Amino acid sequence: MDYQQLLAPAAKAMRPSGIRKFFDLAAEMPHCISLGVGEPDFKTPWSIRDAGIRSLEQGRTRYTANAGLKELRAEVCAYLARRFDLAFGPEQVLITVGGSEAIDLTIRALVAPGDEVIIPEPCFVCYEPITQLTGGVPVPIATRAEDGFCLTPDALRAAITPRTKLLILPYPNNPTGAVMSEADLEAIAAVLRDTNVMVLSDEIYAELTYGLDRHVSLAALPGMAERTVVVNGFSKSYAMTGWRLGYAAGPADIIKVMTKIHQSCIMSAPTTSQYAAITALHSCDEAIETMRDEYNRRRRYVVKALNEMGLTCFEPRGAFYVFPSIRRSGLTSEAFCERLLQEKQVAIVPGDAFGACGEGFARISYAYSVDHLQTAMARIRAFLCENGWA
Amino acid sequence: MEQLLRILEQNARLPLEDIATMLGIAPAAAAALLDEAAAKGYIHGYNALIDWERAGVNVVEAVIELHVSPRKSRGFDDVASAIAAFDEVDSVLLMSGGYDLQVIIKGHSFQEIALFVAKRLSPLDDVLSTATSFVLRTYKRGGRLFQAEEIDERECTVL
Fold it and tell me: B119-143 burial by CB neighbour count: b if 16+ within 10 A, else e?
């Protein structure tokens, strides 16, 4: 069989992850230490795990309603109102398999062939390929370190065309750790209010912000709820990555169509996870704070250590990544990371994996114990010194 | 202060500079906090978590459950502090439940501990009975695994 001829062109055209081989290499190094992962090192709080176990003991092992358990959707609404001042009703919420499915559904429900999707980069890697699978046209906007990797209203205005359907707003940002303040968001909202552009606000890191201000959702600004689909989930805030549970909240007409797609592809999100998630939303605010405090301490440590060794990074205020510049090495991001891996067995992610404008940077995750981070920082420092880049 | 104590509880050997960085304060301010914590008795000491078994050093440990008759005036405090005064005693805890005091003792041999119980603990006026259990193996102590390494199962390929 000539599979190359059989495979759908759009699927074949998806860019393979350039760093796959890089990490395969890392996995085979016995003394390699990674700062590469994008998930919490904490275990899911016990009360949440217990709720999942209890649901199994009670034999709650069937499908749920397509949109998700009614009780869970009500909890999601209460949570979004309590933590982020968002006013959604249960009919505006769809429970999905991770935030990832919510992203997929939002793009598929909105984007027709030829529609343009504005994607501020560097960013999480899934927006572009999903857009391309729908026949949409990704329009990347390169955000800049000088702007704190925020999307600026000027850049947005310049990117909007009559074909623009959707803006992806991925803040707090993976990989840069950038957050957008209420004032930043208001400037973006001002540009959008005159248009028909919808927004996918990916707020999966909403609980992990470290400034004095809490995360602000674009949908909480005047007039923005009607043009925003908020994507969030349980993975990062409750350390529940393996439970694969997220949600989308947005205008009822859009959620309804997304639910149709979800019904055909997924049926319903994992039932055990949904029962566990009710407990998460209901009684785990304190666990969120504890984990955030811990991340914050590591964040301060890593930022200072990197800046002191000459890998300058602006201060990330969200997520659990820092995004230092590696330009003083004179190497490309990929070459820098590959040599760091070969010479010191430390795995970090080249910045260009998150979009072309990430070149010259690298992503370092601090979802690791302080002991682990200390060892890693010492190795990176030695790497820079030995190569004369310190 | 709570943040400082949480950092130290996990790793007491961090340089003061790093602790200050994590707290987002100046090293001098962190030093002052540390002094305050010691002065107010929030921190009783800094001990290493030693795996004697792996180090090949013979250390025998026993947990002793004590029934005591509390004194009318001072309750359990008198007898507890008398027991705590022995050097061999690692910890003394007043317990709820089936017995009164839990005493943890470290020694070089089973015999040494048995003698200590027979000659020192049991004769105390207020001690009604003792039940000694020897520790056979330490799996976890002070939040650290002793037998197995904590394995990071996370795949580094997920972005």
Answer: ebbeeeebbeebebeeeeebeeeee
Mean pLDDT confidence for A155-172: 98
Cα distance between residue B2 and residue B25, in whole Å: 14
Q: For residue A122, what are the CA distances in angstroms to A140, A151, A354, B24?
A: 9, 11, 5, 28
The alpha-carbon gap from A386 to the nearest alpha carbon of chain B, in Å, equals 24
Contacts of residue A7, defined as CB under 8 A and 6 or more positions apart, other chains included, come to none
Taking the C-alpha atoms of residue B7 and residue B122, their distance in angstroms, rounded to an integer, is 40
Helix boundaries (H) for chain A? 3-6, 9-12, 20-27, 46-57, 70-84, 98-110, 127-133, 153-159, 182-192, 252-265, 271-283, 285-308, 333-344, 370-386
B144/A contact by beta carbon, under 8 A = no
Average pLDDT over residues A2-9: 93
Spans of all domains in chain B: 2-39, 52-137
C-alpha A104/C-alpha A100 separation (Å) is: 6
Identify from A212, A297, A320, A348 which residue to disrupt to test chain B contact, counting B C-beta atoms within 10 A and taking the largest count: A297
What the block records as the tokens of A270 is: 């994992």
Q: What is the pLDDT of residues A211-261, one digit of tens each?
A: 878 999 999 999 999 999 999 999 999 999 999 999 999 999 999 999 999
For residue B2, the chain A residue with the least C-alpha distance is A293
Tell me how crowded residue A265 is: count the other CB atoms within 10 A of its CB.
12
Partner residue facing B154 (CB), from A20, A37, A124: A37
Closest residue of chain A to B10, computed from CA coordinates: A370
What residues of chain B lie within 8 A of the CB of A304, using their CB?
21
In order of start, what are the domains of chain A with their CATH numbers?
3-44+287-386 (3.90.1150.10), 46-283 (3.40.640.10)
What's the Cα-to-Cα distance from A202 to each of A93, A166, A178, A216, A228, rounded to whole Å?
Answer: 15, 13, 13, 12, 10
| Separation of alpha carbons A171 and A246, rounded Å | 16
CA B53 and chain centroid, separation: 17
Average per-residue pLDDT for chain B: 91
Which residues are registered as beta bridge partners of A350?
Answer: A362
Residue B28 to chain A, least CA–CA distance (Å): 17
Is B11 close to A301, i.e. CB distance below 8 A? no
- HEC string of A288-351 equals HHHHHHHHHHHHHHHHHHHHHCCCCCCCCCECCEECCECHHHCCCHHHHHHHHHHHHCEECEEH
pLDDT of residue B155: 67
| B52-137: CATH topology | Alpha-Beta Plaits (3.30.70)
> Phi and psi of A389, rounded to 5°?
-105, 0
Cβ atoms of B65 and B99 within 8 Å: the answer is yes
- CA atoms in the 13 A half-sphere facing the CB of B47: 8
Nearest by CB: B21 against A26, A300, A371? A300
Is the separation of the CB atoms in B92 and B82 below 8 Å?
Answer: no
Q: Kindly tell me if the per-residue pLDDT of B141 is higher than 60.
A: yes
